[in-house]
Design a protein that fits this description.
By secondary structure, the chain is an alpha+beta fold. The protein has 6 helices and 7 strands; from the N terminus they run H-E-E-E-E-E-H-H-E-E-H-H-H.
Length: 244
């Protein structure tokens, strides 16, 4: 599952070249036209995957393009959402990985299952059946609910971020039954990012400016929030200080 924010109001987005009294107003990042438009520049499909997560009833369609872009389309409850595109030239090929196991949930399911087992054993005694049957039904139902909740809350999340801004722009969440397929696709995406990086020039300042423009584009497309864009571009501005 990828995470996408509601698109920001373009009228509320300030010009990227001048922000306030910070260092950003002294660094000219140029026009956004200098960055290729992923919607028109991406033409040749190199790989595609439909990453389904049955537990959360989601599917993320990921399409890679040889030109160095990726298109992401989310489906929730069987209904497709809006697509967004990322420029692989500005992504870190090494994602972050988060694994969560809902231990308490599994313990609750185990406890309820134990109660259901005891109730099933007591059914052997005729004098106890009247009280035991509803106990067995409730315990069995509680076991199923607790087990589902535990599985839902146990997940593996892979996050791809921008390389200098460290803005998380693509999150893939896999639950039980889908982890293997998600894991198999991650190296493909990482290799595509590394291939895109091979075409990057040696002008570090020009690259940092282009990455800043990419963050502003992602903010306009709703992939990044205003705060997220400000934080990530601030990290990029710090790189200019290092270069100086």
């Amino acid at each position: 599952m990828a995470t996408r924010l509601k698109a920001a109001n373009p009228a509320a987005i300030p010009p990227p070249s001048i922000a306030d009294d910070s260092r950003s107003e002294h660094i000219y990042i140029g026009s956004e036209d200098l960055n290729p438009n992923p919607a028109t520049a991406a033409r040749t499909i190199s790989a595609a995957a439909a990453l389904s997560n049955a537990v959360r009833r989601t599917r993320t369609d990921v399409t890679l393009y040889e030109e160095g872009f990726v298109k992401v389309t989310e489906h929730r409850g069987g209904k497709p959402g809006d697509s967004f595109r990322l420029d692989l030239h500005y992504l870190d090929p090494v994602p972050t990985l988060e694994r969560v196991i809902a231990v308490r949930g599994f313990y609750v399911a185990l406890g309820c299952g134990a109660v259901a087992g005891i109730a099933a054993f007591l059914l052997r005694f005729e004098m106890l059946r009247v009280a035991t049957v509803p106990l067995l039904a409730v315990a069995a139902l509680a076991t199923l609910i607790a087990l589902f909740v535990a599985i839902y809350r146990s997940y593996e999340k892979t996050v791809f971020s921008t390389i200098h801004g460290r803005a998380p722009v693509l999150q893939l969440v896999a639950n039980l039954g889908s982890i293997k397929k998600f894991r198999a696709f991650v190296p493909t995406l990482s290799r595509a990012i590394e291939t895109a990086h091979e075409g990057i020039g040696e002008d570090t300042s020009a690259y940092l400016r282009a990455e800043m423009r990419e963050h502003y584009r992602l903010r306009g497309d709703g992939v990044l929030s205003n705060d997220g864009c400000a934080e990530s571009t601030g990290r990029i501005l710090a790189q200019f200080d290092i270069q100086i």
